[in-house]
Design a protein that fits this description.
Elements (H helix, E strand, L loop, with lengths): L22 H14 L3 H8 L3 H10 L12 E3 L8 E5 L5 E5 H12 L1
Antiparallel strand pairs: 1-2, 2-3
Length: 111
């Protein structure tokens, strides 16, 4: 009969003793969750991940969500009245109208 060799790899932990999961592993788990058909809670329980932690990972890798911070060009058109505002978004979309409404829309788009 042969011998079996094993080794224990200890996960990295933060100062509070919590396991640090690398970004690539988090992303792979979220992808696996999306393909599983399970609820977030059921998947987190199956993988033994804290539910709140897992939901934050799902948000982090939300489809179509850019994590990059960008700038938008904001200017006051020459033909505009003092209370109007025009904003050119990084996508090229131009939003113009009353300053308060445009500012509120830009604030909502940040979410």
């Amino acid at each position: 009969m042969g011998t079996i060799e094993t080794s224990l790899i200890e996960a990295k932990k933060d100062r509070r003793g919590r396991k640090i999961t690398p970004r690539a592993e988090r992303e792979a788990l979220v992808k696996e969750y999306r393909e599983s058909g399970l609820t977030q809670r059921a998947f987190a329980e199956k993988e033994r991940i804290n539910f709140t932690t897992f939901t934050s990972w799902v948000q982090e890798f939300k489809v179509g969500r850019s994590t990059a911070i960008g700038f938008a060009e904001v200017s006051s058109p020459s033909s505009a009245t003092p209370a109007s505002l025009e904003a050119r978004l990084p996508s090229g979309v131009v939003v113009s109208g009353q300053a308060v409404e445009v500012a509120r829309l830009l604030q909502l788009l940040r979410c």
